[in-house]
Design brief:
With about 180 residues, this protein is an all-alpha fold. The chain is built from 6 helices and no strands. Helix 2 runs antiparallel to helix 3 and helix 3 runs antiparallel to helix 4.
């Protein structure tokens, strides 16, 4: 049976197609409402999981997946949608950076799991700052803030820096000699 925190996370996942549809149909105000609901639910599910002792393995996996589905979808849509003025449409390099970083993190996590037999998913402070700027980028475009370019370039910079940080940390984890988790091939 799902606990309340996991139900909220699943609700956030179901908001993503509604958010995408609103963008595709040029209803940026509705997209903003769905995105705001998703952001609030992200904080709420984490708060509930911590304060009500509802941390689960499912929640540990679902929460970052929900975030990635929403953010990657948003970055792709806001780069491709025709309903935005040209100066507010994301240039292709921004979603490429965001998607590449996330793909590298996922692949690195899989490699660590295969080699070490376990992965501890712990977002870094830089990773949290990155997520904040990615979210602010989306909001700034949805509200048609004319200086969004500065926000998305800041988000891109933090995305690159946090990606390098995660790769460095992953390399260290893979380099550690832990005889208990060494597998014979």
């Amino acid at each position: 049976m799902l606990n309340l925190a996991n139900k909220i996370t699943i609700t956030r996942i179901t908001l993503t197609p509604l958010f995408i549809a609103a963008i595709v149909y040029g209803r940026m105000n509705i997209a903003l409402a769905f995105f705001a609901a998703a952001i609030i639910s992200d904080g709420l599910d984490g708060f509930i999981a911590r304060t009500r002792n509802q941390k689960t393995l499912l929640g540990t996996i679902l929460d970052p997946v929900a975030d990635k589905i929403l953010l990657i979808s948003a970055f792709i849509c806001l780069a491709l949608v025709n309903g935005l003025p040209a100066h507010l449409r994301l240039p292709p390099y921004v979603p490429i950076i965001v998607i590449s970083r996330d793909a590298i993190i996922v692949l690195g996590s899989i490699m660590i799991y295969v080699v070490k037999g376990d992965v501890k998913i712990e977002p870094s402070i830089l990773g949290k700052v990155t997520t904040f700027f990615q979210m602010i980028t989306i909001v700034s475009i949805l509200i048609q803030f004319k200086h969004s370019v500065y926000i998305w370039n800041t988000a891109a910079m933090f995305t690159i820096m946090s990606g390098i940080g995660y790769m460095t940390k992953g390399s260290r984890v893979l380099s550690e000699n832990n005889s208990k988790n060494t597998r014979k091939v």
